[in-house]
């Protein structure tokens, strides 16, 4: 149901706009990725750089810590719309609106305890190998 204000604005012929990213006006700034970023790790609580399991995954992808950027889902919405990067979603079931390959796994605490989840992550890496190793084509 339209409010009185909405009705009055419509009668006056005034177009109302809805912000796509209102958080930008609340003091948050756009996030820009370093040029050498090859993988985004997106999690509600991004893992520490020195986490052993994360280091093992990065080693398997032949990536260094400098080529990885850690973000929360809220920060991903602040990325430019044309951002293209491979993503590892830790504990996030819904795909992100970013172009690039998206790996999905349970949150890190659960991943440590679940060998099946580790195997599934490894299978995703193998299936998307050309996206992570473009020079191997």
Automatic annotation (TrEMBL):
Keyword Coiled coil among UniProt keywords: no
Keyword Coiled coil carried by entry: no
Purpose: Part of the beta sliding clamp loading complex, which hydrolyzes ATP to load the beta clamp onto primed DNA to form the DNA replication pre-initiation complex. DNA polymerase III is a complex, multichain enzyme responsible for most of the replicative synthesis in bacteria. This DNA polymerase also exhibits 3' to 5' exonuclease activity.
UniProt xrefs under Pfam families: DNA_III_psi
Protein name as catalogued: DNA polymerase III subunit psi
InterPro entries in the cross-refs: DNA_pol_III_psi, DNA_pol_III_psi_sf
Keywords: DNA replication, DNA-directed DNA polymerase, Nucleotidyltransferase, Transferase
């Amino acid at each position: 149901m339209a409010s009185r204000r909405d009705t009055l604005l419509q009668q006056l012929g005034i177009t109302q706009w809805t912000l796509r990213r209102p958080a930008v006006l609340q003091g948050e700034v756009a996030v820009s990725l370093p040029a050498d970023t090859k993988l985004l790790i997106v999690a509600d609580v991004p893992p520490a750089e020195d986490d052993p399991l994360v280091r093992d995954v990065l080693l398997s992808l032949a990536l260094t810590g400098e080529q990885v950027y850690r973000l929360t889902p809220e920060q991903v919405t602040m990325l430019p719309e044309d951002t293209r990067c491979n993503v590892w979603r830790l504990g996030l079931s819904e795909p992100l609106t970013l172009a690039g390959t998206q790996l999905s796994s349970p949150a890190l605490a659960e991943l440590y305890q679940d060998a099946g989840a580790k195997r599934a992550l490894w299978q995703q890496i193998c299936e998307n190998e050309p996206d992570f190793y473009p020079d191997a084509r």
